[in-house]
Amino acid sequence: MRVIGIIAEFNPFHAGHEYLIREAKRLTGDPRAVVMTVMSGPFTQRGTLAVSPKHVRARQALVSGADVAVELPFTFACAPSERFASGAVELLYRTGVVTDLAFGIDCKDPSLLLELSKVDPDEEVLHNALKEGMSFPAARAEAVLRAYKGDADPVIAADTLRQPNSILALDYLRACRRLNTGFRIHMIPRKPGHSATDARERLLSSDTSSVSSIADHLNGIIPDKALSVMLASLSSKDFRIPSYDEYMTDAALAVRRSSDLTATAYMTDGLDGFIRNNIGGDLATRHFTMPRIRRALASLMTGQTGSYVDKEKHVRYIRILGFTNEGRYCLKIMGKCARLPIISNCSDALESYSSDPSLKEQFELDLLANDIYARYASMEPGYEWNIPPVRVKIK
Questions:
Q1: CA distances from 73 to 95, 255, 370 (A)
Q2: What's the count of helices (H) and strands (E) in the chain, helices before strands?
Q3: What count of other Cβ atoms lies within 10 Å of the Cβ of residue 7?
Q4: 323 and which of 53, 204, 269, 327 could share a cystine (Cβ 3.0–4.6 Å)?
Q5: Residue 309 burial (CB count, 10 A)
Q6: How far apart are the first and last CA of the chain?
Q7: Per-residue pLDDT tens digits for 147-170
Q8: How far apart are the C-alpha atoms of 236 and 238, rounded to whole Å?
Q9: Please, what sign has the CA dihedral across residues 322, 35, 47, 124?
Q10: Going by DSSP bridges, is the β-strand pair 318-324/184-189 parallel, antiparallel, or unpaired?
Q11: Contact between 255 and 247 (Cβ < 8 Å)
Q12: How many CA atoms lie within 13 A of 39 on its CB side?
């Protein structure tokens, strides 16, 4: 059985995601290939609240071609590219069933990305670029480019590294090589016009209290089945689109209440002082990217410390968010092959608490992140204790 891993946030799910799933299945040459997607939970890699709850996004993926949806723990989901990729690839590897990995790319030459993924960044160039105020992603791209000794045109190599998702793609490839996963890799060029950023902007420019307004703004951007899932959940008042302004107001209060921010994850290199001095105003700066600032604030809100991030390098469990009938068969096999505990309901985690303190610490951080999300999405605290994995029957 071929099982294709796809790492995504579905924030929101859009036509490009549907295309990625369909194309990944096509490239395997196996019409019965299973797609297992690893999803971010309540917080995204860029540190923002997801536009809809994870169980809604899981259902959208499942009605649009995926077969199994699992959750990437908060400490890896809301993290820099390298940590995000490392956690997601390890999770797929530890399932014991994934055979392929597929992801979208923006560059025209996948072979060049593969070549660049084998280049270790020049540490001196990286250090000097950061010292000069360059953002970490840009500095790392520059350090890779300076260390590259291959035959590709330097201009083309530089352009490849500057594409929006190239650094993440390189980190997926490096994680696969480091773990010796043996995955077959499928790098799929993205189709123009399919952008999560554009979809979010359209969503947030709508009247988010009006289901009809949201439908008007997202029609044609989100596939019909996936859009119906979101609209039905909004109509039933299962959640509301989280308010970023409300969240940032509370984050500002948390900053002002804290006497010392230095223990918080990602509050290094003077970011703690910068945030304290500017939290009420414009946080945009050349030295600190907004994703890093948001990840630091998310860590503050959840109590995630820098020491925890430094010591915790591994995913401790596989959290099942949903599955189809085909996916259910895959999960039965995974139950025999997985090299991590499988958690379908929150109560499953409790059984491992006493024997695995690391699992407990990672899972409780997830629970807190979800409770924080619930506050801004008008959901009950502890809601996920009462929501079983999504089951979608595909005819």
A1: 15, 24, 11
A2: 19, 8
A3: 23
A4: 327
A5: 19
A6: 20
A7: 998 888 888 888 888 887 888 999
A8: 5
A9: positive
A10: unpaired
A11: no
A12: 33
The token pair at 148 is 């590259």
The answer to whether 215 touches 234, Cβ cutoff 8 Å, is no
Report helix, strand or coil for 206. coil
For 282-294, the pLDDT digits (tens) are: 887 877 889 999 9
Burial of 178 (0-12, 13-18, 19+ CB in 10 A): exposed
Task: Please give the full DSSP string across 217-281, using - where no structure is assigned.
Answer: HHBTTB-HHHHHHHHHHHHTTS-----HHHHHHHHHHHHHH-S--TTBTT--TTHHHHHHHHTTS
- CA–CA separation, 39 vs 309, rounded Å? 20
Spatial neighbors of 327 by CB under 8 A, at least 6 apart, are 34, 36, 62, 66, 67, 68
* Number of residues assigned to the chain: 395
pLDDT for residue 159: 85
Rounded to whole angstroms, how far apart are CA atoms 235 and 209? 10
Domains in the chain (CATH in brackets) are 3-106+165-195+314-392 (3.40.50.620), 119-163 (no CATH), 244-310 (no CATH)
What single letter denotes the amino acid at residue 258? S
pTM: 0.95
- Backbone phi and psi for residue 206, each to the nearest 5 degrees, phi listed first: -85, 175
DSSP H or E segment with residue 38: strand 34-40
Give the separation between CA 139 and CA 130, rounded to whole angstroms: 6
What CA–CA distances, in Å, run from 228 to 64, 115, 236, 306? 11, 41, 12, 40
